[in-house]
Amino acid sequence: MINYQDVLNGIYQEVMAMKDRGVPASYIPELANVDINNFALHLKMNSGETYGVGQSTTTFSVQSITKVLALALAASIDNNDILERLDVEPSGHPFNQLALLEVENGIPRNPFINSGAIVISDIIVSAFKNPKQEFLNYVRDITGDNSIDYDLKVAKSEKETGYRNYAAAHLLKSFGNLKNEVNDVLDFYFVQCSLSMTCEQISNAFYMFANRGKCISNVTRLTEQKVKRINAIMLTCGFYDEAGEFAFEVGLPGKSGVGGGIVALLPEHFVISVWSPGLNSRGNSKLGMYALEQFTTKTQLSIF
Ligand code: DON
Question: Which of 21, 40, 245, 248 can pair with 54 through a Cys bridge, CB separation 3.0 to 4.6 Å?
Answer without folding.
Answer: 40
